[in-house]
Design goal:
There is one protein chain. The protein has 13 helices and 18 strands. By secondary structure, the chain is an alpha+beta fold. The strands form four sheets. It has an eight-stranded antiparallel beta sheet with strand order 13-12-9-10-11-14-18-16, sandwiched between helices. Strands 3-2-1-4 form a four-stranded parallel beta sheet. The radius of gyration is 22 Å and the shape is globular.
Length: 409
């Protein structure tokens, strides 16, 4: 296992060309095409009828999986496919199956359902002796209420079992809270939901890359981001965590144990982990679909890592990304979070985007409408001194108070 330092190039196989299948490619998955092309690899798009629309150019060929694994596997074999990657959350299940059928590196198929369900994930970790939230996964409100009464936990979280689901979780303190949230979340009487204990600790997003090493899965922690949330539990600030301290080591060791227990054997993953002082780290969710951030080139220069390029490098050469050249740089992402409907004020927007530590932003246009409670955009701040970032962060929040989002619509 590796915490930060990747395997050296000298220990890696020689550069080769090949063809990779990207399953159900979407925005992030489409970025594999140019990343693999840098190493001389071609990309094949594997879609299903429900996800055929869209997609970027650059694929050598597109094939449609219409339910017959035998036909799809035979087609990929004829095309000489040497690797399979999920191109979106919708592609993780089929990617696991195709990799197994093609006898290519991939995540364990027998734990695939567990990885894609937060309730099953917690249960599997607890069964393996690994810290995780106590929870119940059920389609019946009465079962959830009985469990809540039995556990006598002050705060609970109700959420969809799919970690990629768009609906946020709901914090519940009373039985009435659970009832209201239940009827809001449940789409049908057979839809299971997860009710778990709320672990009120700091949360971290941990990016990993896994590949084979001497016959076993070798996990590398590529970056750890500390998330700060507002009272509504929305992420409002994210800071790159130094991997030199005891906290980073504890998070890394825990995450690698969890990945092994959950059958993550190849490719990228990103986990949300909380840290409770008297219990240590606990996994809240795990995803193995591709992750793409804004300002990827700038982030890669500052951190030394890019999940898409890191995966392409591992696949094409067997190597891991090198350590960053500027390990002492402080990197922060700030969310613009309007509290009411309005529009971005052009003058104040220019003020915040011109701050000394702001090096990149998402697409932000003066006069563009914003919605209350929805992230209007992100700012990327980089500096040698964390105090400079904190000072600019205060200016951004002051601009919000002064009217960055204008008047209510």
């Amino acid at each position: 296992m590796a915490l930060a330092a990747p395997l050296l190039a000298a220990a890696s196989p020689a550069h080769r060309t090949g063809t990779a299948a990207v399953v159900a490619p979407a925005d992030a998955g489409d970025q594999y095409v140019p990343a693999l092309a840098r190493h001389g690899w071609n990309s094949i798009a594997v879609t299903e009828p429900a996800h055929e629309a869209g997609g970027s150019a650059g694929y050598l060929q597109r094939i449609t999986h219409r339910g017959s694994l035998r036909r799809t596997v035979a087609h990929l074999n004829r095309l000489g496919v040497q690797a399979v990657l999920a191109g979106s959350p919708a592609g993780t299940e089929l990617a696991d199956v195709l990799a197994t059928r093609l006898n290519l590196p991939g995540n364990a198929l027998d734990t695939a359902d567990i990885r894609r369900d937060t309730g099953l994930t917690s249960a599997a970790l607890l069964e393996s002796g690994i810290t995780a939230p106590r929870s119940i996964r059920t389609a019946r409100l009465s079962n959830a209420l009985r469990w809540a009464d039995f556990t006598q936990t002050a705060e609970l979280v109700l959420q969809h079992p799919d970690p990629t689901h768009l609906r946020p979780f709901h914090l519940c303190r009373t039985a009435d809270d659970i009832r209201v949230a239940w009827h809001r979340f449940q789409d049908s009487s057979t839809q299971s939901l997860v009710l778990r204990e709320h672990l009120a600790g700091a949360q971290y997003r941990i990016h990993t890359l896994t590949g084979p090493d001497r016959g076993a899965a070798d996990h590398t922690i590529t970056s750890i981001w500390s998330e700060i949330r507002n009272p509504e539990q929305q992420v409002c600030r994210v800071d790159l965590l130094s991997r030199q301290g005891l906290l980073a080591r504890a998070l890394a060791l825990y995450t690698m144990r969890a990945l092994t227990a959950l059958g993550v054997r190849y490719g990228p993953a990103h986990a949300t982990v909380t840290f409770i002082p008297d219990r240590g780290p606990a996994l809240l969710s795990l995803r193995t679909d591709p992750y793409a951030d804004f300002a990827t080139d700038t982030l890669r220069l500052a951190t030394g890592h890019d999940p898409i390029r890191d995966t392409a490098l591992l696949l094409a050469t067997g190597r891991r990304p090198e350590a960053p050249h500027q390990p002492h740089a402080h990197v922060t992402k700030i969310a613009l979070l309007p509290r009411r409907d309005g529009a971005l004020d052009p003058a104040l927007l220019r003020t915040v985007t011109a701050l000394p530590t702001v090096v990149a932003t998402t697409a932000l246009t003066g006069g563009a409408p914003v919605r209350a409670g929805q992230i209007a955009g992100w700012l990327l701040l980089i500096a040698r001194d964390s105090r400079a970032i904190n000072q600019d962060h205060q200016v951004v929040r002051a601009a919000e108070t002064l009217g960055l989002y204008g008047s209510a619509a």
